[in-house]
Specification:
Elements (H helix, E strand, L loop, with lengths): L21 E4 L4 E4 L2 E2 H7 L2 H10 L5 H14 L4 H10 L5 H11 L12 H26 L13 H10 L5 H14 L6 H10 L5 H12 L7 H12 L5 H10 L17 H17 L3 H17 L5 H11 L7 H22 L26
Antiparallel strand pairs: 1-2, 2-3
The protein binds coenzyme A.
Length: 377
């Protein structure tokens, strides 16, 4: 029997690819895209600039950024057959299931679907980045019985998404907060969904297939689904005075508290630093501090009792909620941002590809077992 060695449960700390996209130091709480610290990017950058940085490996010049912004804007409009398909799915699928199904279906109308050249794949990355935001906004409008809002290519991705979702231009505070959330979520090295995308890409399947794998993987509550679980928990608790009992009950029952813990960070998740500040600012400017106050209290208990820090999903929940976004759109919104990282990793995988095919350590019945005919079982 071939001996397979080196199994690490959950592939913890296993290096599975060379990558020049995202650097994380989990002990020091450092995250960078292409070597630029996330704190600087959160302060100064925009989602479109991050797309360029992740895809091209450097910051854009002004003209390059303007072009990319216009191109993503132009690609936001869904081809009419895709809009019809989306409308037919609305009664049957949750927003996240609709995103997963639609990303797969988009291949049907994409003129570059079979073009595996770098320019062809770049066009698909850009197109899907535009389209995924419109899918989320249009699905929500349709389920509410409201007309789909047409895209406005002159606006930033963040602003146009909020406008298409709500039917009105967002405030400058909402626009900036949402753009920063997109910046913070855009990439995170070999997280589960990006790994899934790279595994699919490594078979030389097309980019739509790789992104479909990624969206499906993002859905789970241990990954992107955690932000929705966090707001559901906050809503269930309801008020600050009920936090302690609720949390202690959950911890005694050994239940996980969503939005805490991380496979890679052993200190504060640097994205949580910004989302916490954003949550506080939105709470103070709206005068409704309940969700932020409850979040702070939960965080304090988790720090003290479990020595666990909040992750990206914890404060993004109250941020999105205070921006008036419905809870079941939180994970689809994660996809609106992470599409930038997924496609950057797929491009990188294609550039230096080798099939990703690990081994399993066999723990089943000892070989050889005899085949028992069905009438003798
Ligand atoms: C992120 C996560 C999946 C990492 O998982 P992991 O590296 O496999 O870590 P484990 O699930 O094995 O957790 C290690 C220990 O910490 C505890 N723990 C981890 N996250 C916890 C949480 N959110 N709440 C309570 N306890 C937690 C586990 O129960 C386990 O304790 P034990 O050793 O006594 O059994 C995990 O922390 C988690 O489930 N968090 C909640 C979901 C979430 O927020 N996901 C978004 C991540 S960005």
């Amino acid at each position: 029997m071939v001996e397979v060695k080196g199994f690490k449960e959950g592939l913890e700390d296993v290096v599975a690819a060379d990558s020049s996209i995202c650097y994380i130091d989990g002990d020091r709480g450092i995250l960078s895209y292409r070597g630029i610290d996330i704190h600087e990017l959160a302060e100064h950058s925009t989602f479109e600039e991050i797309c360029f940085l992740l895809w091209e490996g450097r910051l854009p010049r002004r003209d390059e950024l303007d072009l990319l912004r216009r191109s993503i804007g132009a690609e936001r409009a869904l081809p009419p057959p895709m809009l019809e398909l989306l409308a037919s799915l609305v009664p049957h699928l949750t927003p996240m299931d609709a995103v997963r199904t639609m990303v797969s279906a988009l291949a049907e109308t994409d003129p570059d679907v079979a073009d595996m050249s770098r320019p062809g794949n770049m066009r698909k990355a850009l197109r899907m980045t535009g389209q995924i935001a419109t899918i989320v906004a249009a699905h929500h409008r349709l389920r509410e019985g409201k007309p789909v809002v047409e895209t406005d290519p002159s606006l930033s991705h963040a602003e146009d998404f909020l406008r298409m979702l709500n039917g009105a231009r967002p405030s400058s505070e909402a626009k900036r907060a949402f753009d920063m959330a997109l910046v913070l979520h855009a990439d995170h090295e070999l997280n589960a969904s990006t790994f899934a995308a790279r595994v699919t890409a490594a078979t030389l399947a097309d980019m739509h297939s790789a992104v479909t794998s990624a969206v499906a993987t993002l859905k789970g509550p241990l990954h992107g689904g955690a932000n929705e679980a966090v707001i559901r928990m906050l809503l269930q608790i309801g008020s600050l005075d009920r936090v302690d009992d609720f949390l202690h009950g959950k911890l005694e029952r050994k239940e996980k508290i969503m939005g805490f813990g991380h496979r890679v960070y052993h200190t504060e998740d640097p994205r949580a630093t910004h989302l916490r500040a954003m949550s506080k600012a939105l709470a103070e400017s709206s005068g409704e501090t309940r969700w932020y106050d409850m979040s702070r209290r939960i965080e304090k208990i988790m720090n003290e009792e479990k020595k666990l820090n909040s992750n990206v999903d914890f404060y993004s929940a109250s941020v999105y909620y205070m921006l008036g976004i419905p809870p079941d759109l939180f994970t689809p919104i994660f996809a609106i941002s992470r599409i930038a990282g997924w496609t950057a990793h797929v491009l990188e995988q294609y550039e230096n590809n080798r099939l990703i095919r690990p081994r399993a350590e066999y723990i089943g019945p000892e070989y050889p077992q005899s085949y028992v005919p069905i009438e003798k079982r």
